[in-house]
Amino acid sequence: MDNRLLDIKDLAVHFHLPEGIARAVDGVNFHLDAGETIGLVGESGCGKSVTALSILGLIPSPPGRIESGRIIFNGQDLLHLNGEGLRKIRGRDIAMIFQEPMTSLNPVLSIGRQVAEPLMVHQGLGKSAAFDQAVRWLDRVRIPAAAKRLNDYPHQLSGGMRQRVMIAMAMVCGPQLLIADEPTTALDVTIQAQILSLMNRLKEELKMSMLLITHDLGVVAQMAARVVVMYAGQVIETADVTDIFDRPFHPYTRGLLKSMPRTAGRATSRSGRLSEITGTVPPLTDVIAGCKFADRCAHAFELCRHHPPKLLPIGQGHNARCWLKEHPEHRRQDHG
Ligand SMILES: Nc1ncnc2c1ncn2[C@@H]1O[C@H](COP(=O)(O)OP(=O)(O)O)[C@@H](O)[C@H]1O
Ligand SMILES: [Mg+2]
Predict the structure, then answer these.
(1) Domain residues for 323?
(2) How many angstroms separate the alpha carbon of residue 105 from the centre of ligand 1?
(3) Count of domains observed in the chain
(4) What is the pLDDT of residues 187-243, one digit of tens each?
(5) What is the whole-number distance in angstroms between the Cα of residue 98 and the centre of ligand 2?
């Protein structure tokens, strides 16, 4: 328990929309230990980004609202912090990188300035000391001729280089936790591999923990020790990465694995669509009595449609939210 860095307990985040209440995050539980990387996976729209934004206190409100739960970071509940307290933690102790660097880089500020800024804000460094460190960081993320590029603006860089700048910005203050939300989804396969290996290297050097969000299980296989699978706002399976690949339990996890591109490590599916599971995620405004996956599940039986399954242990460090645990006789052998 000592090295527990982040503990998310029963988190519920709803969006109050004209068409109803969208239960984007509907009772999520998982934890992250110091130095650990976990992969948060699931189809697009299943609540991964909303979970991440909740940690940083960045849920747009209205229409969003954190209804219940706790987000314990270093023993402190982030949901009890005020704006000032959260701003201190954001960028210093917890940093985040996003899929599209252009949305988080400021187009009218030089990249040197943007990497230097967190050092001035959080560590009180003067301008020249901060810029010195910025050069060192741009070098560390392998921006060629870093000192000469300090005054460049984001639009002068390629997508891969912009992502490196964003990583430098995220890392300058030596955060304990890096949240990376689809960090390589917008990049070419070769650039993606370079960025992932850069992130892995920095994570080791800084002894940081990482919450890596992706719909790409190839990325997870490369980066994560443990996997949390989400479906329609809930965690439906969690296990060590080898168990997820060798012994997936939940029919949804099995479907995700089946729809992985054959060529290992290649992100050929950009959309997050699943070829092996028919149908789509139910509207999050629907009130579903049973298992949220039942409509798409080849194994579903009566119980699944009327009673929600709980997330229960099915092995060492392995949990699944599925009635097949109690009723294995309903698993159809011809379907995964
Ligand atoms: N700003 C918003 N306004 C209304 N609904 C939102 C907003 N952000 C997210 N949602 C709802 O939350 C759901 C989950 O979104 P998100 O966490 O972004 O999914 P993903 O798993 O692809 O990251 C969306 O399908 C949408 O219904
Ligand atoms: Mg997302």
Answers:
(1) 4-93+175-330
(2) 22
(3) 1
(4) 888 889 999 999 999 999 999 999 999 988 999 999 999 999 999 999 999 999 999
(5) 9
